[in-house]
Amino acid sequence: CAAGVFVVARDWLAPALLHQDLSSTADLQTRLAIYKGNPFAKALFDNAWWSLQSKITGQPLHRLLGATRDQVPVGADFGVMDSIDDLLTAIDTAVAAKFPRVKLKFRPGWDLEMLRAVRRRFPDQMFHIDCNSGYRLSDAELFQQVDEFGLAMIEQPLQHDDVIDHAELQRQIKTPVCLDESATNLRTVQQALQLASCRYVNVKPGRVGGLNNAVAIHDACRAAGIPCWVGGMLESATGAAHCVALAMLENFSYPADIFPSSRFYHQDLSEPAVELTSLPDGTPAVTAPDQLPEPVPERLDRLTLERLVLK
Ligand code: MG
Fold first, then answer.
1. How far apart are CA 140 and CA 1, in angstroms?
2. Per-position pLDDT tens, the chain of length 311
3. Catalytic residue among 36, 55, 98, 105
4. Rounded to the nearest whole angstrom, what is the distance from the C-alpha of residue 204 to the centroid of ligand 1?
5. What pTM, to 2 d.p., does this model score?
6. Which residues have CB under 8 Å from 177's CB, separation 6+?
7. Which of the residues 55, 98, 204, 311 is marked catalytic?
8. Is 36 annotated as catalytic?
9. How many angstroms does the Cα of residue 76 sit away from the middle of ligand 1?
């Protein structure tokens, strides 16, 4: 949680970095490696380094990360609703808005019947489901039934820290498995690639310890022929712009889960807020900014619970 990140950053990570000359985030991560885990706290410093580097050099962040694209398509995303009719109405809107793929939450009680209704109404739209670790390998038969719906992938069907059961499940079904919660660091993703636990990886910069690690995971997946996509964790516009910049890398080839600020916030902490753009054919997209959004000082003040000055 945010309070834990604050304490780890204050008591351990910040003192290890203060007065150090850091030539890269690889260097930064090496200095922090003796502190196990705590990816969100590490991401704070890694991403801050990239923000500063972009500002100092005047280079857009996505260029610093090695991207050559400036715009990529994004997907639509729908949770569990009061009724399947409500969901079908929501998907109608997304299809009319030309979202290239739609992600659906999938859990006991909101599963095959929901998928059947969605597929009947939208035979050609690209869909995938996200199970948020809600199932076990003993549910393999359920996922064999999911195969008939022709989904793009099944996101994180099994436990949040597993790569072994996912490999076994992937052997038993046709639909690609995508790791999300399990993709916590480069080493675990490499093990998943070795075990053939998945055919997609969802990368969230915060969860993997920052952009440095997110790029490394992207590169490892590219080398293994496994496409990735970028997910978000309710970032402010500053954090979302990091996700946007990351999503410009070429192996992020499945449409990202990046949303306009207005989806989650009445008023974003940072300016400018994230807005969707469109590709020439009307597909909803995000465009990498030349300059990153910055927190608005009055809004930051209003929401600040605790303050730390590093000297
Ligand atoms: Mg997910």
1. 32
2. 789 999 999 999 999 999 999 999 999 999 999 999 999 999 999 999 999 999 999 999 999 999 999 999 999 999 999 999 999 999 999 999 999 999 999 999 999 999 999 999 999 999 999 999 999 999 999 999 999 999 999 999 999 999 999 999 999 999 999 999 999 999 999 999 999 999 999 999 999 999 999 999 999 999 999 999 999 888 999 999 999 999 999 999 999 999 999 999 999 999 999 999 999 999 999 999 999 999 999 999 999 999 988 88
3. 105
4. 10
5. 0.97
6. 153, 154, 157, 166, 169, 170, 197, 198, 199, 200
7. 204
8. no
9. 13
Whether 44 contacts 8, CB under 8 Å: no
Q: CA 262 → CA 172, 258, 275, distances in Å?
A: 40, 12, 8
Q: Which two tokens stand for residue 107?
A: 């859990």
Cα 128 to ligand 1 centre (Å): 11
| Residue located via tokens 């690690």 | 213
> 216 CA to middle of ligand 1, Å?
20
Verify whether residue 55 is a known catalytic residue: no
